[in-house]
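Let us walk through a complete example step by step. Step one is to write down the protein sequence. Step two is to encode the small molecule, zinc ion, as a SMILES string so that its atoms and bonds are unambiguous. Step three, shown after the inputs, is the structure prediction itself.
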Amino acid sequence: MTCKEAALLLTQSIDEPLPRRVALRLRLHLLICRTCATLKKELIALSEAAALLAAQDPSELQAIGAPGLDPQIAEALKKRIRDEEGKNSL
Ligand SMILES: [Zn+2]
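Step three: the predicted structure of the complex.
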């Protein structure tokens, strides 16, 4: 598994549980890859922040079409993943 795949799976796993085999492969990658392990921690923190925001004003998030995830946070996540990809390709 590449870091790109891992980052994608990490963001997916926030929205929905991963299939067991995929989750296992991801965990294996996180064991050997510090970058993705850190990313996971940050994603969890961000998703908790998103949940807090959604709890404050869920109607606004749904109006934008991103229930449960603030668009700004979604953008931050994408940017973060792009940054990590850039680093890893060096
Ligand atoms: Zn990685």
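Step four is interpretation. The mean pLDDT is 79.
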